[in-house]
Design a protein that fits this description.
5-stranded antiparallel sheet; 4-stranded antiparallel sheet; alpha+beta
């Protein structure tokens, strides 16, 4: 089977691609900034360096929020043709902190109290209603960038003025005092494969590894584990990093990352998370491929019922040099066990007929 990893070519993406070689017969890596999607009367086409990509059994998309629209378009184009661990909507939800929060809230997942302001003036008016300290964010941004704290109206207004340059809405959240700690859980499918506690540097509010934080192994509570899996399902993603805060009101989800870095969590937990992801992709791709074969086989009998001797195009299942035919084919022939048949075999041809017809 064939896998394609479309990413910015970072460390974690290459790590997954390398581990995937243990499972897939072929693994190709494409740079996402070399991809494009074309729409026409023949539908959507995905191209790499101007050439339409071949069929892959699995496609894994990774990359920053800057490519959210392209990632969604690629997923829309390939949906139903190959296995992908993300729904097209995942990229709109997961790459936008505000939309993530809204979706989590819809699924009744515990989150910090959050306010949204579309303009600078509205944001400054909100400051008169909130309790300090607060967290101020912009919807786009990764690795802790664009996240600041304010302990007074004066400092909050200064931060808002600085963030105005990004020309994005403002997200204002209550501050949850965790001692500059949070939890990162990597969800793969329906389970958490690794989790760590991230501790930020003194004087910083961010615990991100990319911002100088350090990772420590952490065993999730049952509630934290369920919360992480539910958050992944809320944004329709099968592979995602979920960030959780421990609070007196119980664990809270603050963000979800569709392209989580693996270096820090693999070092902290001593778990080969890249291998977990690669194996999951292989098993799901194989399941998807076999499922399509089953669907094709079920349609065979319908085709045969319409017209006798009508040919049906399908892939042969050959194991240990033995041809295995779908049960629908057997049912369509009317052959019974222990009845003699005449086999006429030639290169590229196999004819099976009841012996009584000769």
């Amino acid at each position: 089977m064939k896998l394609c990893v479309i990413s910015l070519g970072g460390y974690s993406s290459k790590l997954i691609a390398d581990e995937a070689m243990k499972f897939f017969g072929s693994v190709e890596e494409f740079k996402i900034n070399e991809m494009e999607v074309r729409a026409g009367k023949d539908g959507l086409k995905v191209l790499h360096k101007g050439v339409e990509i071949p069929h892959f059994d699995c496609v894994l998309l990774r990359g920053s929020y800057k490519y959210a629209v392209l990632q969604r378009a690629i997923t829309e184009a390939l949906q139903g043709k190959t296995y992908m661990p993300f729904h097209p909507q995942s990229f709109s939800l997961g790459h936008d902190k505000l939309l993530t929060i809204l979706e989590l809230q819809k699924y009744k997942i515990n989150i910090p109290k959050t306010y949204l302001a579309s303009t600078l003036n509205v944001a400054k008016k909100l400051l008169e209603e909130v309790e300090f300290p607060i967290i101020i964010k912009i919807p786009g941004g990764t690795q802790g960038k664009g996240v600041m704290s304010a302990d007074s109206i004066a400092s909050a207004k200064t931060i808002l003025d600085v963030l105005e340059v990004f020309r994005q809405p403002y997200i204002i959240q209550e501050f949850i005092d965790t001692g500059v700690e949070d939890i990162r859980a990597i969800v793969v499918g329906n389970k958490v494969v690794a989790s760590m506690k991230r501790k930020g540097m003194v004087g910083d509010i961010r615990a991100n590894i990319h911002q100088g934080g350090r990772g420590l192994p952490h065993n999730l509570t049952i509630e934290e584990n369920e919360l992480a899996v539910r958050a992944a399902k809320a944004i329709k993603a099968e592979i995602v990093g979920v960030d959780i805060l421990e609070s007196f009101r119980g664990p809270m989800v603050i963000e979800a990352n569709l392209s989580p870095g693996l270096k820090g969590i693999m070092k902290a937990t001593n778990r080969n998370v890249a291998n977990n992801i690669a194996e999951y992709l292989f098993l799901k791709a194989r399941e998807n491929k076999e499922g399509k074969k089953d669907e094709g086989a079920k349609s065979v009998i319908k085709e045969l019922d319409k017209k006798h001797d009508r040919g049906v195009l399908m892939n042969l299942d050959i194991r240990l040099d033995t041809i295995r035919l779908p049960p629908e084919i057997t049912k369509a022939t009317g052959f019974k066990r222990d009845k003699e048949v005449l086999l006429i075999a030639d290169k590229g041809k196999l004819i099976i007929k009841k012996a009584e017809d000769f």
